[in-house]
Design goal:
Length: 156
C-alpha cells in the first residue's frame, strides 16, 4: 500500500494515508469524516505555528465571539486539538497536560460548532464530536506507519 503514497496531489496523498491508517485501527471512517480529516491535514500541513497555540485560551476567547466568528474559532481549536492529540501527543507531556485534555477540549469545540451552526453543518460537527477518539486514533496510526520520504510532512 505504501506505493500508493508516492504519487498524487497533496489531497490524494493525505487521503491514502488516512484511509490506510483508519483501516489499521479497525474503525474505517465514513466518507464525511475521512474527507474532513483530509481537509484538516491539508489546511494545516504548512502551518509553522500549529504547535504554538494555547488551545485552552483560544477556546475561551472563541466563547466570547458571536455567530459564525464563534463557530470558526471553535472549529480551529477543535482541528488543532485533533492534530495535537493524534499526531503530536508528546506536546501534551511537554506542556504538562494529558492527551485527554486536548481530546476533551477538541471534542467540546466541535460540539460548540454543532450547537452554533445550521442543520447540515451542525450534523457534521456533532458527528465529529462523537467520533473524536476514532479520528485521534486514525492520526495516531498515521504516526506509527512508515511514511515515504517524499510524502507530505508537518513542520514540527
Amino acid at each position: 500500500m505504501i506505493e500508493a503514497f508516492k504519487k498524487g496531489t497533496p489531497a490524494e496523498v493525505w487521503q491514502a494515508l488516512v484511509k490506510e491508517a483508519a483501516g489499521r485501527t479497525g474503525h474505517p471512517l465514513d466518507e464525511s469524516r475521512e474527507s474532513y480529516l483530509v481537509f484538516v491535514l491539508l489546511r494545516y500541513q504548512g502551518d509553522t505555528l500549529l504547535l504554538s497555540h494555547v488551545q485552552g485560551v483560544e477556546w475561551m476567547e472563541a466563547q466570547a465571539r458571536m455567530g459564525s466568528a464563534r463557530a470558526d474559532a471553535l472549529r480551529d481549536v477543535g482541528d488543532r486539538c485533533l492534530l495535537v492529540a493524534g499526531l503530536f501527543p508528546g506536546l501534551a507531556e511537554r506542556r504538562r497536560v494529558s492527551v485527554e485534555y486536548f481530546i476533551d477540549l477538541g471534542r467540546s469545540a466541535y460540539q460548540g460548532v454543532a450547537d452554533a451552526s445550521r442543520q447540515a453543518y451542525a450534523a457534521l460537527y456533532a458527528q465529529l464530536a462523537r467520533s473524536y477518539l476514532e479520528l485521534v486514533a486514525t492520526l495516531n496510526a498515521m504516526r506509527s506507519a512508515p511514511i515515504p520520504a517524499n510524502a507530505i510532512r508537518f513542520v514540527h
